Amino acid sequence: MNELIKQLQGIDQRIGYLVHIKGNADWGNLSEFQKKVEQLKQTVFDMGKDTFRMQLEKLEDSVCFLEERCEEGLTSMERVRIVRSPLRFSLKDILENVYEEHTELGGEGEANIDPALVVAKANIVRRIKKKPYTSPVMIIGQEVGHGEEFRNGGSCKPWGNEKAMRYMKVAETEGIPIHFYIFTPGSYPVEEYPGAAQQIARNLYTMTKLGVPMISVISEGGSGGAEAVGMSDFRLMFSHGYYSVISPEGAAAIEGRVREGQKVAPELIERCARQLNITAADNLRLGTIDRIIHEPPLGAKTDDFAFFARIRSEIIRATDEVVLKTKSVRGFRSYEVKRKKAESSDEAPQIDIPWDLSSREKERLLKARSRKYRNMSTHSFGVINIPTENMFKLLYSASEKLWYSFRYDLLKNQHKQMQKTLKEVSGEGTALVNRITAPFTSVYNKLFIQRQNKKKALAFSPSIEAQASGDYCIIADPLELTDTYTSPLANEDRTVTCPNAEKYGCQDLWIPDLYGEFCGVCENCGYHFPLEYQWYLKNVFDPGSVRIFNNEIFSRNPLNYEGFDERLKAARSRTGMGSANLTFDAKVKDINLVVTMLFSDFRNGTVGSAEGEKFVRACDRARRKKRPLLAYIHTTGGIRIQEGTLGVAQMPKCTMAVREYIDAGGLYIVVYDNNSYAGPVASFLGCSPYQFAIRSSRIGFAGPRVIRETTGIDIPPDYHDARNALKRGHIQGITDRRDFRRHLYQVMQTMGSPSLYYR
What we know:
759 residues; alpha/beta; 2-enoyl-CoA Hydratase, Chain A, domain 1; 4 domains; 26 helices; globular
């Protein structure tokens, strides 16, 4: 009888699981089945064993039928609920059932740097022809836990992601593969040091050039939190998992313009989940993952041991594939690996592939990783194709590359080497001459030089009275802002009140003055009113030096998101631009530089495939022409949600381009203005070694509302301002808009290597 009672409890759990997935107890008469289970629990000892067994068999058949029906028609949102179920397996289950032995690093359970992020050194054993082969690996991933509240549902804090980065470097030192497991709805949005966005950016920057095979497996992949440990050489995804730019509830709140405190309609959540293309099949079609690991019907649970064997086979196979791409001789072994599906250990390839790499193989690994992410999402933006113009651009680019390589890599390098040699010889000769002439020079200085210096000082130093009365003038600084452009905002004949008037006693500002000679800055407190991006084009860069390129690339609607084509059309009509990224060549005080500018007018400066591609090409152009690269962020609202994971792919893609540019000796400068949040700040912007902000700008990972809904914490009004970003080390300085041109010139003169191209 005890076995029958256990069977009844199992059926009850399965019915509850179906209710959880469907979010509705009325589907398939589940509420009636729940009542039936309660009746059987109450009458279990009142009926005979045979009668009870018959009732159970009948109920079991009905539940099996509903499970099959549910699996056949699973929606995107239902897959999200499967992933969020407490019955689903976690990283701890994988560590115990996929790997032979493991040791956690950075603490266990609550005694951990960040319990949401688990790092472990593990061994995985392959049996090939009955002979065991043990390989050490580093395991890094989020841990949701089974009802453990202290793990924050797998939402890592900045110091958790910092721990992940630290042990990535340890794995590289030891030359062992890294297996990432992604179980997170997103990172915990706190800006305390080192800052959520900044740390994710550092992780991505590190992962671009890690010289070890990296495999990631996605169960729940929420945007930036997933990318913190998601960049890899091979991406696997569980068939019932989801990978998204934002949660369906978050997307619905944005699309429905739902105010804080209001409920989001379930129908809108379902529609957004479908339109975001978040399922494993969707991501495989879009090219953001490489292969799917199939789960049992309605998702794997903690006791699905056959499924864990499948994970083992798939993770070994994926690591083998990555390693084989680095080998010079791989034909037959590669064929054997691809021929087997690795659905189980019996079907896995029966060959041994060592996972340690030589220096040459590491180079091939990094090149393959670069190609992988450079080619990601290239099908999701539009390009205006003119065959003759494309041919001309191709020839021009090739000749340009040849010329700049000859000019800088050959001539200038030889010139610098000759200068260095001459300087060394001259230095030795000078030291010898100085030793011989030292006594005579000392006598001459005492007799003549000191007396002359005193006369000069008296002759050329203006008196205090002269300085005070203005009898002498200072030569105008050639780096002062040029008076060639006035904001259209200055045309209104009225006054405006400074937001800091109560605090600092600021007077009302007359708009023609504010947006004219004041450059949109309150003269009393320095508050910066927003200005259009055109102001910077006209006032920061040398007159006539701005030359736009990549204008043929434009944003599209790759997911066929409902109503988004009309919104893109409206943005193009209003701005005359095809995307939110403006790329151009320019000069500042005759110094050539390449500029990429995200501006607010087009979809609030959000980044999609077109914007990412233009950024990558700007990096390539700056590297080819040996010029500094400036990323001026007029505004960015983050990754464009209507492009789903194709937008998220821009985070590793653009970071890869930045890393390659910096490694080639380039100077990469980022300047934030207005509001800059989310994905771009947590990747290709936040990884710059030189980041600055215009005063009154706001920088962070998530806005106040998101933080409140995620953490339940009300943040102070100045939480994201530039001063706090400076205090936590996100940026390296704050500049006044009126001094931006001067400051940019100083930065290009002082930052970076002494061997920069333009010096």
